Amino acid sequence: MAFGLKKDELLAWKQKVRRGEIAFITHYWLDDRFPDMKTVTKVGCSNMEKLIKWGKSYGLKPNWIHRDEHYPHFDLIGSFQRDILKAEGKLDQLNRFK
After folding, report:
1. What angle do CA 41, 44, 45 make, to 5 degrees?
2. What is the superkingdom listed in this entry's lineage (predicted)?
């Protein structure tokens, strides 16, 4: 279950993804499979080659991509989430939900 997003934030993320940009969006998230995780960051890009290359630079595997028809993306949680957001200068996305 996702929550904590504003419609304009989601719309901006979707537009960036569709334009072939690497786009980040973080939100609260509850999933019984990951009881200690409270947020997820979705990193999307409609250009699959670009998304795969970006992911590999952080040790993410191509088969981890959610292959949504319009919004393919990685879901980042835990240490991957914090480390990648820090490296990308986007910790503000995660800090917002603390």
Report:
1. 165
2. Bacteria
How many angstroms separate the CA atoms of 46 and 23, rounded? 10
- Grouping H, G, I as helix, E, B as strand and the rest as coil, residue 63 is helix
How many helices and strands (H and E) does the chain possess? 4, 4
pLDDT in tens, 14-69: 999 999 999 999 998 888 998 898 999 999 999 999 999 999 999 999 999 999 99
> 79-87 long-range contacts, Cβ below 8 Å, gap at least 24?
81/26, 81/39, 81/40, 81/41, 83/58, 84/41, 84/43, 84/58, 85/24, 85/26, 85/41, 87/58
- The ranges assigned to domains in the chain are 2-95
Identify the three-state secondary structure at position 71. Answer: coil
Dig out the tokens for 48 from the structure.
Answer: 């699959």
The three-state secondary structure class of 52 is helix
DSSP H or E segment with residue 14: helix 7-18
